[in-house]
Structure formats: C-alpha cells, structure tokens
C-alpha cells in the first residue's frame, strides 16, 4: 500500500526524502491516514452525540498544542515496547517477542508537515524502543535521523543468548556483551534518560545472571555523554544478580525486576 499523496509532495519540496520522513523503519507503508483504532472511532461518535457538541468542526490545528499533544499521545503511545519488524525473527527471540508491537495510528503523522513534526516528537519520546540485535540499533539510529534521535528517551535492551553461559559456553555471553558495549560506545543517542536491561529470560538462574564489567562501563559512558542536565539516569535491571547494581554510580535511580515471558 502506497503512502498518501502528501508524501510525494513533501519529497519534492524538501528535496531529500530522508529529511522528510524517517519512520519507514516502523513500516509506515502498511498504514493509511484512515487507520484509526475502533476504540477511538467509538469515542468520537459518542462525543458527537453529547449535548453541546459543536455543529461546526474545529480545525485540528486551531486546538491548543497541549490538547493536540494529548491526542497524539492517545494515538501513538503504546504500553509495550516498540519492536522493529526486522528484529521479530532474531535468532534468540521467543514467540512473545515475535508479536509485532508498533502504534496503530501512525497515519496521523502523514497529514501535513506541522502535524508530522509535532506527532513524531510524541511517537519517539513517549514510547520505549526494544532491541535484541545490537547492529539493528545502530541501523535504526541512522534511519530516523538526528532530529528524531534527539526525541528518544527510553531504550530496552534484551541480552538474548545468555542461557548458553550456564551450558558451558561462557564465550557467548562475553561476545554478546562486548558487541553491545561497542554499540553503546558508537551510539549517537544523547537524550536517553532511561535504559532497561533484560537478561536471559529463557533460562534465568534463581540468583539472576551476571553483567560483564565491560558492558557496565559502556552504559556509564553512554549516560555520561547524554544531555541529561540535572536529571539522574534511570536504569532497570531485569533478571540480573543483586550485585550488578553495585557496578553503577550510587546516585543513579536503579531498580531490579524479574522479567518472565
């Protein structure tokens, strides 16, 4: 399915498609401007039947920006982490991972340039973006461009393959961790305020799994480069040992969880 005609007009106006639309990674080509969830349609119809409903429609851009942002968030924010389609069949993903989770109403971002700029801020800043593949994270960063990179606030990194550590192949956990350490050192994300690490959800020892020091150092350096101002980095460690928390600065906001699928 092709994108609405507006896409081609904007490409001609801006010259370079990359400067206009950077959500192709989320498979926007499968959406349309009419992809409004049934629940939203129901609420809209209910509001139309209420006393005092305006006979004449109010142009969307005439609404206050605060109200428009609430509408964008309702349309574009989802509770589960956003999973990019190219990662759904990574070698270490589970059946739960392969359930595609992206916002249903992405078509709202295609209405015009102003709505595109306003809505993509909500799309990238209000959602958690999940990664299993370290290379995919760098490719995602490049594909969305610097403007959208600056909007991302929360990442979830799932360290798949850690189960092999308990079966006599410790090099797997080391290589996996070193790859992620390298990616975090090369990442251009500088506005992330929260990171969620999920380790070994397939076979989790009762005591949790260990995080390699090299990866912990990379996480510390990653936040050191971030534009956090006075904000304290937030780090969630899921399925890791209690001692893992001690590898990070004491003033960080750190929580530990058990993650099961």
TrEMBL record:
PANTHER family per record: F-BOX DOMAIN-CONTAINING PROTEIN (PTHR42085:SF8)
Record-given protein name: Uncharacterized protein
Species whose genome carries this gene: Cudoniella acicularis
Annotated InterPro entries: AN11006-like
């Amino acid at each position: 399915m092709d994108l609405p005609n507006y896409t081609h007009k904007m490409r001609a106006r801006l010259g370079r498609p990359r400067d206009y639309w950077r959500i192709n990674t989320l498979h926007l080509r499968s959406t349309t401007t009419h992809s409004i969830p049934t629940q939203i349609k129901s609420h809209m119809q209910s509001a139309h039947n209420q006393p005092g409903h305006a006979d004449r429609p109010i142009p969307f851009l005439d609404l206050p920006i605060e109200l428009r942002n609430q509408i964008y968030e309702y349309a574009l924010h989802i509770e589960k982490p956003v999973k990019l389609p190219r990662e759904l069949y990574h070698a270490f993903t589970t059946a739960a991972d392969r359930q595609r989770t992206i916002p249903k109403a992405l078509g709202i971002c295609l209405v015009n340039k102003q709505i595109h700029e306003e809505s993509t801020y909500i799309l990238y800043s209000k959602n958690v973006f999940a990664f299993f593949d370290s290379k995919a994270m760098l490719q995602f960063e490049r594909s969305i461009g610097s403007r959208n990179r600056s909007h991302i606030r929360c990442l979830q990194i799932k360290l798949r393959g850690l189960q092999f550590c308990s079966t006599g192949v410790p090099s797997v956990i080391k290589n996996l961790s070193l790859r992620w350490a390298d990616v975090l050192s090369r990442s251009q994300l500088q506005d992330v305020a929260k990171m969620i690490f999920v380790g070994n959800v397939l076979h989790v020892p009762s005591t949790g799994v260990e995080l390699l020091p090299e990866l912990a150092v990379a996480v510390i350096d990653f936040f050191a480069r971030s534009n956090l101002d006075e904000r304290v980095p937030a780090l969630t460690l899921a399925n890791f040992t209690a001692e893992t928390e001690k590898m990070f600065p004491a003033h960080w906001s750190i929580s530990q969880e058990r993650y099961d699928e």
